[in-house]
């Protein structure tokens, strides 16, 4: 079946892992505590903070305990949806102020632009919140890239190493899984997408092998028609 949509990961695929760990995470670690305190001061029953309590299973946690929970989650790189939402809100401030510029590899920018012009529908699937995804592309060093994408998916669709997540996304797109090409640098994600019926391509920018999938080191080496 002909590929009609391309679904891409961000970290390590369109964007540098170093950007996430050396820029985004430190910014969130520095500014998230004050953001949480401000939320609590404005609304002690803030849905944002209540979501952290529910996910942490600590319904009586006070503000400082919430900050400690979030700090631990960040240190452990826990894919908690409430954390990702709060991180996205904090990053919004950094992007808006110009302190942060989203990193997107030039080869990814060129390929995504070309694919959209060729009629492919482009989507993003990342463990970061949809808001965070829109920020990295909307405030990228190459300008606002959000017009390239038809939609975004995060962990509300399921975790990235689970087959059902990709089935859910295919259903949301209204396409057979076989018409979707998924790009990632993580073997378990590629395996899950393949198990759901998607076409797959592994990005190995720093070398290595993602066994069982076509491997490329650059978006420039990807030809969606080759998967038909």
Architecture overview:
This protein has 228 residues and is of the alpha/beta class. It has two domains: 5-16 and 103-227, 3-Layer(aba) Sandwich (Rossmann fold); 20-97, Orthogonal Bundle (Transcription Termination Factor Rho, Rna-binding Domain, Chain A, Domain 1). Helices cover 47% and strands 11% of the residues. The chain contains eight helices and six strands, in the order E-H-H-H-H-H-E-H-E-H-E-H-E-E. It has helices spanning 17-42, 47-56, 63-76, 81-97, 106-117, 130-138, 163-173, 187-195; strands at 5-8, 121-125, 151-153, 180-184, 199-203, 214-216. It has a six-stranded parallel sheet, with helices on both faces. Helix 8 links the parallel strand 4 and strand 5. Helix 1 runs antiparallel to helix 3, helix 2 (47-56) packs across helix 4 (81-97) and helix 7 packs across helix 8 (187-195). The model has no long low-confidence stretch (mean pLDDT 95).
Offer a concise description of the structure:
The protein has two domains: 5-16 and 103-227, Rossmann fold (3-Layer(aba) Sandwich), CATH 3.40.50.1000; 20-97, Transcription Termination Factor Rho, Rna-binding Domain, Chain A, Domain 1 (Orthogonal Bundle), CATH 1.10.720. It is 47% helix and 11% strand.
